[in-house]
Amino acid sequence: MQTEIDELKSQVNRLTPQNSSVPPSTQHPHTRPTTKPKPKSRKLLGDPLKVIINYDRAKRYWQAKQLQRCGAHLKRDLQSRIDHHDHQVKRLRDELKRRVESMFLIWYNYRSNSIAWKTFQSQMRHLRKSVNSLLLHGVYSGNQRLIRTCRELYNSRKWPWTFTEVEGIEPTNNAAEQALRLAVIYRKLWFGTQSEKRSRFVERMLIVSEISRLQKRSAYQWITVAVEASLHEQQAPSLFNKP
After folding, report:
1. DSSP secondary structure string, the chain?
2. How confident is the model at residue 202 (pLDDT cuts 50, 70, 90)?
3. CB 2 within 8 A of CB 52
4. Cα torsion at 112, 115, 116, 117 (round to 10°)?
5. Closest Cα to residue 50, out of 1, 108, 116, 103?
C-alpha cells in the first residue's frame, strides 16, 4: 500500500477582532505535522512494514522502513540547491537533471504500456547506476557546494527508486499536493486562526471538501445533512460512499 504525504505549516495568530478571518488548518488526510513524528502517526499511516510512504524531501521520514522520494521534488531540489555560477557545479547539476528527466520518460513509456515491466526495470537499473556514479563524483569532487548536497542524496539513494522495484508505486506524491492545493491557496489569502479549536474547524472543513471532491459529491449537501442530524441528536452520515 502506498501513502502519499505532503506538508503545510500551521499559521495560528493572535488577531484583532476586525482581522479574525479563519484560514485553513495544516492537518489534512495527506499531511503530517512539521515536528518529529509521534507514536500516533503509526495509527494514521498504518504498519510501517506494509506501507510505502511517498514523501517530498523531509528527513523525518527516513526512520520509516519503506520510502519513495518524490521525483518532482528531487528535480526541483537539483535546480535550487545546486544552482551556482561555478562551472563544475552547473555541469554536474545538468547531468543529474538529465537523468531525472530520463527517469520520467521511461516511467511514462511504461505507464502507457509502451514497454513491459521487466524492460522498465532493466532501463531503470542502468539509469540508477549512472545517477549514483554522478553523486559519488560530487561527493569526492572537493567542491564544498557539491559535497554536501551529493552526500545527502547518495546516503538516501535507494528511495527515489522504490517505484522501480514495487509495481503500482508512483514516482511522485502529486496526489498529496493536489489535495493540499485548496489549503495552500486559502492560507495565503487569510491571516491565521485565533485558537487551536478554530484551526481544527477549518481542518475538518477542508477534509470534508477534499473527500467530497474525490468522490464527486457535494460537500455543502453533506454538511447540511450532518448539521440537521446533530440538531436532532442523530448520528451524522458517513463521509464516504458506500462500496
Report:
1. -EEE-B-----B----GGG------S--TTB--SSPPPTTHHHHH--TTTPEEEESS-GGGGGSSSEEE-HHHHHHHHHHHT--S-HHHHHHHHHHHHHHHHHHHHHHHHHTTSS-HHHHHHHHHHHHHHHHHHHHHHHTSS-HHHHHHHHHHHHTTTGGGGGGTSTT--SS-HHHHHHHHHHHHHHHHS--BSSHHHHHHHHHHHHHHHHHHHTT--HHHHHHHHHHHHHTT-PPPPSS---
2. confident
3. yes
4. -80
5. 1
For the chain, the first-to-last Cα distance in angstroms comes to 19
pLDDT digits (tens, 9 = 90+) for 167-201: 988 888 656 566 666 776 777 777 777 888 888 88
Per-residue pLDDT tens digits for 80-139: 766 667 888 888 989 999 999 999 999 999 999 999 999 999 999 999 999 999 999 999
Could you tell me the CA-to-CA distances from 229 to 6, 19, 225 in Å, in that order? 33, 32, 6
Backbone angles phi and psi of 33, in degrees to 5: -65, 160
The three grid cell numbers given for residue 132, joined into one nine-digit string: 549514483
Average pLDDT, the chain: 77
